[in-house]
Structures are given as C-alpha cells and as structure tokens.
Amino acid sequence: MGISQPGVSDLIGRLEAELSTKLFHRANKQLVLTFAGEQLLPFAEQSTVSAEQGARVVKAMMALGGGTATFGLLRNADFYLGTNLAQQFHRLYPNVRMRLLGQNSAETASSVASGNLEAGLVTLPVDDADLDVVPLVRDEVCFVSAVAERCAAPMTIRAFAETPLVLYDAHYADTDPARRQLAGRARIAGVRILPLIEVEYLSSALALVSEGIGDTIACRAAMASEAFPENLRFASFEEPLFDTIALIKRRGQLLSPATREMARLAHSALMAYQNSPHGTAEILPTAGETDAFFF
Asked: Which secondary-structure segment (H or E) carries 12?
C-alpha cells in the first residue's frame, strides 16, 4: 500500500473512533475482522472501486480521452472561422463530448457568466462585469443597399435613421452588439432607429434588401461570402462601425481541459482564416494574449 505500519494503525484507529466500534480483533500480530468489520467490508470495497473509477474518469478527461467541451459561438461564426469547428475537434478528440451553442453574443455572454457555458466567442460590446475578455479581431460593419446612390458616400447616423431599414436579430434587438452601437450613436445625434422590418437572420434581411424593400447592415466577412447577393452595394459609416470578436470566460475560472482545447482550436482557426486571402478582419494586438489569459 506504500504506507508505513504506524500509518495504517493510525488510519484504523481514526476510523474506529469515528464509528465508535472496533473493526478488528488484534491477536498474535494479526488483524481479524469483528462482526462490525464484516458488515462494513462490502461497502468499503464498493467505495474503493468507485474511487478508482472516478480517478480513471478524471485522468481520461485530463488526457482528453473524455469529458465535455462547452463553448458558445457567435451566430455568424462560419464567416470568420472558415472551417467546421465541431468536425475538427471531433477528429482530434473523438471521445470528448461537445456542447456548442450558436446564438446572439448577448445571450452567449450571459450563459458564460452564469456558468451554463465555460467559454465562447462573442461580438463586443457585451455586458462583461463577470467575464474575462480577450479581443481578437475586428471587422467593419457597413451599410448595405440595393440602391447604388445610397452607397455613394459614407453613411451618417442621421441618414441611417431616416432610411427604411430591414434589421436582423429581431429577438435580441438592441441587446445585439452592432445594434447597441448604432442605438448609442443615434441617442447622441438626437434621433431614433426604428426598423421598417425586423427578421431573425442576416440571410433573410439580405434577401429582402436584394428585392429593394429596404436597407440593412452587414460585416465585411458576410459581404465577402458567396451567400451575399450580387446586386447589393455597401458603404462605410461616416464614423466607421466595427464588430470586435473576443474570447470570453467566467472571471477567474480555470477552463476544463476539453473546453480549453476547444478555445485553442477556435482561436487558431480564426487567426488562420484572417491571415488567409479571404480574411476581412484586422487582428488585434491582444490576440496574442490568449495563452496567458485562458490557459
């Protein structure tokens, strides 16, 4: 057992004191179970087996032979990662379970802060009072229209507020990071942004704008994708507007090995895509801080 004889005697004595009964008869330098000891024996054996099984589970998780990765993804993650994150992770760690939630960044941030998710990729700004945040890249958000004349010059916030708008993320509305920024600018300018139509998905908004029903916004990564309608035009805002993509985790929390590797893989995929000819975003200096920040 790797324990000295006095150490064993001490452990037995402490157990007997806790149970207020003798577990062994001591005679001729031998230990023989008492009746109480015989009653305890099967439970002790069961506890030993359970402890060994628990240790194996933890070791497997630490070696990424098991465990669960819980990670949140911004809704338009596919534009930026350029790869199937789940497929890559499963190929590397086939015995690790995954729980990937793709939702609005405001809800992802809330899920991480509450502990329902360990970490995630979000678009800033989000409510970060309980989060550790590392900004990674920023991508410009532009005004999009089927009317070329509306995109002939940079878009002012006043002109934007007067435009018939088709905005996406209807469920989250002003909690959506891009719409939060626009709403803040509108308040400063003394105007209000009241969409003509609100839909849930960017693809739906672009389809309506392509038909000339209204105008919208989109990040440059979306405009560079094959799904972006060919007849649409775009213009920067007079004060450029950016989506800043960041890794987040609960403040001070150590990530499980599975989620840590998911975060590493997401970061690597994002950096590789942005360094490729297809990348549209600017890599921020803080992107190099992920090792110290998360791991």
From this structure: helix 5-19
Q: Which two tokens stand for residue 55?
A: 């240790």
Say how far apart CA 161 and CA 189 lie, in whole Å.
10
Spatial distance between the Cα atoms of 136 and 121, rounded to a whole number of angstroms:
9
| pLDDT tens digits along 213-239 | 999 999 999 999 888 999 999 999 999
**Total residues belonging to the chain:** 295
Q: Report yes or no: 74 and 126 within 8 Å, Cβ to Cβ.
A: no
Start-to-end C-alpha separation, the chain: 35
CA distances in angstroms from 268 to 152, 254, 272, 281, listed in the order given? 37, 20, 6, 15
Question: What span, in angstroms and rounded, lies between the C-alpha atoms of 217 and 166?
Answer: 8
Q: At what angle do helices 85-92 and 257-274 cross, to 10 degrees?
A: 130
Mean pLDDT of 108-125: 92
Burial class (CB in 10 A: 0-12, 13-18, 19+), 231: exposed
Q: Which helix (H) or strand (E) holds 54?
A: helix 35-62
The torsion region of residue 226 among left (phi > 0), alpha (psi -120 to 50) and beta comes to alpha
Cα(48)–Cα(242) distance, integer angstroms: 57
